[in-house]
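Bug report (template v2)

What were you trying to do?
Predict the complex of my protein with FE2/S2 (inorganic) cluster.

What happened?
Run completed; filing so the output is reviewed.

Input:
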Amino acid sequence: MESTDYEDVVSAALEKHSNTEGGLLPILHEVQDALGYIPSDAVDIIGKSINRSRAEVHGVISFYHHFRNHKPGEHIIQVCRSEACQAMGANLVIENLKNKLEIDFHETTSDGKITLEPIYCLGHCACAPAVMVDGVPKAKISSDAMDGIVDELRVLKNDN
Ligand code: FES
């Protein structure tokens, strides 16, 4: 995406929320929803527009696991790391996934296809272990099932 595109996205978000009390979070959500992440240059623009320092805006981005400060891969796999999922074998799924993708959490495969992220409770604890693939929840996931999903994602183009 060209820089002018991100500037347009940031401007639109600022126009909607910069005069609203607590507008920073909606601004960040809107930028990430549109771009998949919050570019470093956008942090400066946002901070200046709402009279916050770069450090303050960056602090909010870092505090919430939801926000990304780097461009994600074409597909995003989020694996729940909370208690119920851990109790049902999520750690094994995570280890297999990391080995298969050859990346750690918060990294993207070298072909730019898949980003792996931790997430903390998807609200599907009764169906643990749970993952989210491109925003779609998957329940009672096994390592074999996850391998199959990864193989499909590697050949699948994400049109979102
Ligand atoms: S603990 Fe994993 S979905 Fe709730």
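What did the reviewer find?
The chain has two domains: 3-63, 75-155. Residues 75-155 form a domain with the Glutaredoxin fold (CATH 3.40.30.10).
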